[in-house]
UniProtKB/TrEMBL annotation:
Pfam families: COX1. It comes from Natrinema salaciae. GO terms for cellular component: membrane. This is Cytochrome c oxidase subunit 1. Residues 35-518 form the Cytochrome oxidase subunit I profile domain. Keywords: Membrane, Transmembrane, Transmembrane helix. CDD domains: ba3-like_Oxidase_I. One of its GO terms (molecular function) is cytochrome-c oxidase activity. InterPro entries: Ba3-like_Oxidase_I, Cyt_c_oxase-like_su1_dom, Cyt_c_oxase-like_su1_sf, Cyt_C_Oxase_1. It comes from the Archaea. One of its GO terms (biological process) is aerobic respiration. Gene3D superfamilies: Cytochrome c oxidase-like, subunit I domain (1.20.210.10).
Length: 595
């Protein structure tokens, strides 16, 4: 491709990702489109919910609300995020190792497995809208179990099979990244693991550790139970297995966003990553600590002794550290960039950042929102304050800042850079992209802030009828209807933003191929891998410690849950209500007490 630059003609080859890795680009593109389709459907359902809950506009029967809520949660929190993640991680590994995957058929096969899993899950959930859901395997297709799907809610077996396929697909994706790295390592025995690959591998390792919990929950308990092979399960056990996985999964969503903040934001800001060693420390800390704290979602569950909850809280507070380190490193890198661009003063440098670039602006705003999300997370994590906010709309506000903005907005902003890399086509419209990321930030400010406030006066989450007949909520500041209006308004703005994003992606795909796509590169470092202690790259060591920490945090609580409630539950007759893990409290003994 000859490019004319002024009077001298230079021959420059376009060096986008598609030029370097045409076959891998196809899989990544497919993964991104799977992710965008989930985003489109899940996002639209979000608007339906926002309008229903706030009673601004209702056309659903209330039972259908739970079908919508399940679809919204599964499609956005699981499908949208993880499809994007597998795409971006495949990009990161191949780009930073400068080599393709070992066998592209293997890559397509895990992607295909994830698609089949998603379709099975989707069919069972959406059948919930049918008056007469078809019977399959002797049970009507249905899965109104919300995205946390733990007992006592039960889904059709096909839902669980779909989940298994999806997770196994993600495991094989991890195998793919490891294989690529092993192949590279045999050619580069003395080199440090390039930072993006390091981030992918550490994240994959904690994904293996945490998904073990959900795999056991599904394969040993929920699936046999839904098939009628076992009569009952121990709900507290399946909940605990879920949350063993359910906290780490939030970092699985977050790590690709962090990766982009570390390796793209400094470059977009015009500078370099402040510290490669600190970035490695952060990812090692996530590997160590992402799993042994899931019990912080169960502070209010009876049947788990307070001491175990306290340990989970302590671990959670330690896990703030890598995010605080990230805030420092990423902002320091941005400041470095801004100063390279002529920025001056204590805060004046902020003006020198490239605020007209939607890729930058989207990611920076996502980071800013995450700072607020961190505060609501710290409040959730305090055992005592959690009692105030648990199961209220506060928590929903929290996770719309985290996964709904820090992650989703980063992914959308990154897509404005990625789609041209993957297709060789220029972004359709940068101004629309710029408006889109701003609208997301504004819409989420309205919605999430109002949700946090409503949680403080006890507005429950996960209910179609939050008003409770005859019960009046009394906010300390403002009115319920003002809060509802803000949520509905936020929901509408977010939907407009989503539509603009999707339009830009579709139109970009129809654009003509262009020669002026930026090179596929990421940020240099000020302090590089040579400054990182070699031990940081010892993945076996960190994985070993991570497993030990999990054993410490979970063995005793799990043992006492099984001891008190039985592995498969004791059945209703001998049912033991787990109060303070006291195995002597049974239905019979309660009957005696009540008379
Ligand atoms: Fe959470 C509940 C605690 C982070 C997601 N969380 C949830 C649920 C979800 C979720 C989905 O301890 C609900 C689950 C359900 O359905 O029941 N969470 C935390 C804590 C953190 C945290 C301590 N959560 C996340 C992330 C999520 C996520 C990340 C998704 C991606 N969360 C909890 C607890 C509960 C909970 C309890 C249970 C509540 C209950 O009662 O049910 C921490 O990881 C947060 C640390 C973050 C920080 C912020 C650092 C700031 C940074 C920004 C840098 C700025 C930049 C931009 C780059 C300390 C890194 C600068 C820009 C310029 C212009 C300069
Ligand atoms: Cu958590």
């Amino acid at each position: 491709m000859a490019v004319t630059t002024g009077p001298t003609e230079v021959t420059a080859m376009r060096n986008a990702y598609i030029d370097q890795f045409p076959t891998e680009a196809k899989v990544i593109k497919a993964a991104f489109w799977s992710s965008f389709i989930a985003l489109a459907i899940g996002g639209t359902l979000g608007l339906v919910q926002a309008l229903h809950r706030t009673a601004v506009f209702r056309f659903l029967e209330s039972p259908d609300y739970y079908t919508v809520l399940t679809a919204h949660g599964v499609l956005l929190a699981i499908t949208f995020t993880i499809f994007f993640l597998v795409g971006i991680f495949t990009w990161a590994v191949t780009t930073s190792l400068e080599r393709g995957v070992v066998d592209i058929r293997f890559t397509w096969s895990w992607y295909g497995m994830m698609v089949v899993g998603t379709v099975l899950v989707g069919v069972t959930i959406f059948s919930g809208f049918l008056e007469d859901a078809p019977e399959v395997l002797g049970a009507p297709l249905n899965a109104d179990v919300l995205f946390t799907f733990y007992a006592p809610l039960q889904a059709h077996p096909i839902f669980y099979v779909g989940l298994v396929l999806f997770v196994v697909g993600s495991w094989l994706a991890g195998v793919d990244w490891f294989r690529t790295w092993w192949a590279w390592r045999s050619d580069h025995p003395d080199d440090r693991i390039p930072l993006p690959t390091f981030m992918v591998l550490t994240t994959t390792l904690f994904w293996y550790i945490c998904t073990l919990g959900v795999a056991i929950a599904i394969l040993v308990f929920l699936l046999p139970w839904s098939l009628g092979i076992v009569d009952s399960v121990n709900p507290l056990l399946t909940r605990t297995l879920f949350w063993y996985f359910g906290h780490a999964v939030v970092y699985f969503w977050l790590m690709p966003a962090y990766m982009m903040w570390y390796i793209m934001l400094p470059k977009l800001s015009g500078g370099k990553l402040f510290s490669d060693p600190l970035a490695r420390v952060v990812f090692v800390l996530f590997l160590l600590l992402s799993t042994p704290l899931g019990i912080h979602h169960q502070y209010l569950d009876p049947g788990i002794a307070e001491g175990y909850k306290f340990i989970a809280m302590t671990n959670t507070m330690f896990l703030l550290l890598p995010s605080l380190l990230t805030a420092f490193t990423v902002v320091a890198s941005m400041e470095h960039g801004a100063r390279q661009r002529g920025g001056e003063g204590y805060l004046g440098w902020l003006k020198a950042l490239p605020w007209r670039d939607p890729v930058f602006t989207g990611m920076a705003l996502a980071g800013l929102m995450f700072a607020a999300a961190g505060f609501s997370g710290m409040i959730n994590a305090g055992m005592n304050i959690n009692y105030l906010v648990h199961n209220t709309w506060w928590v929903v506000g929290h996770f719309h800042l985290t996964v709904g903005t820090a992650v989703a907005l980063t992914f959308m902003a990154a897509s404005y850079w990625f789609l041209p890399q993957l297709t060789g086509k220029e972004l359709w419209n940068r101004s629309v992209a710029q408006v889109q990321v701003l609208l997301w930030f504004i819409g989420m400010t309205f919605m999430s802030n109002a949700m946090h406030r409503s949680g403080l006066f006890g507005m429950p989450r996960r209910t179609a009828e939050p008003q409770y007949q005859g019960f009046e909520f009394e906010p300390a500041v403002g009115t319920v209807s003002e809060i509802n209006t803000q949520v509905a308004l936020g929901g509408v703005i977010l939907t407009v933003s989503l539509a603009l994003f999707l339009a830009n992606m579709v139109m970009t795909s129809f654009n003509d191929t262009s020669d002026s796509i930026p090179d596929n590169t990421y940020a240099d470092t000020l302090s590089g891998p040579e400054d990182s202690p070699a031990i940081l790259d010892n993945l076996a060591l960190w994985t070993g410690i991570a497993i030990v920490l999990v054993i410490f945090a979970y063995t005793l609580p799990m043992a006492s849950i099984v001891d008190a409630g039985g592995l498969f539950g004791p059945g209703i007759d001998g049912f033991q209500v787990s109060i303070g893990a006291d195995p002597t409290v049974t239905v019979e003994s309660l009957r005696e007490v009540i008379g």
